[in-house]
Design a protein that fits this description.
The chain is 73% helix and 0% strand. The chain is mainly alpha-helical.
Length: 342
Amino acid sequence: MWANGLKWMFLIVGTLIGAGYASGRELWQFFGAESNVAILLFTGLFTVSCFVILNLAYKQKSTQYVPLLTTLVGPKLARFYDWIILSYLFSTTTIMLAGAGATLEVYNIPFWLGMVGTAAFVVLLFLRDTQGMTTINAFLIPILILSLVSILLVFQSSLGFSFSFDVSHQSNWPSAITFTALNILPIVAVVSAIGNQISHRGEIWIATIGSGLLMGSISYLYNESLLQIANEIMFYEIPLFVILKQYPSVMVVAMSVLLWLAIYTTAGAGIFGLISRLRGVLKGETWLVAMLLLAIMAPLTTFGFSSMIAVLYPLYGAVNLYLLVAIILYPFFRHPMSKKTL
């Protein structure tokens, strides 16, 4: 039970900690100053949402997200959100590829080479069908989390650990709702693909509480660190490089590896969700389908990493507000369709 619960926890966290999050760009887009209450609210909303989604996936023994969406919002809106999730998975995986190119450009590696190389490694994940995705997450995500937290703690120690948790003047709390709504999309897509693999309710509690506490605490630590460099963030594509600019080059190398791991796991999760949904439409070996999807995405990476995050992430967060409300209220006010599907 514990092993599987931790595996699902790392799948959830790995789905969210992509290039946008690990680079600091996504957090700065939604949080920043006066966000302590917002991050606390996000932690609560995210934890409850993960529990509802995992519980539904377990009951339905789902292998993809359409039945779960139908239970939450009914058949008509399920078709709408089906297209939204497909669009989200496609566009955010494209953002991951763009992030790979931007990260490796620090070492004068051409943008296109960093992007193509990352896509090739993503394809390798699916040589063993989709089992490789959950296996690699269970191995890489703990390394990713420890590395990110260590770097942020080193930075904070140089400042004398200047943490604060002021609950007054917290005008940014509404951002917690749109940030949670944005991050629920990939959770619905990815978690619903493993519903038939959850064998015990205890796994749900472990994955839910663990992922909620991890995402909340890391978000708070990261946001507090970004506030210390707020005046310089606008000049950098990747805010985290501002934190490391006065540190030895080995730290920059470690950061680049960290960002690449974040890109890799999230791009893999995006392709995983797309393949699970399109399995009946796109025939052939799983790794060939992954290669096809990545080839279609490649030309779109030219729009730029930070530009795509700035435009698409708030848009998806706003569109997904209704689904978030449906998830939070589901235990109390179930959609009529849920009686037919459960």
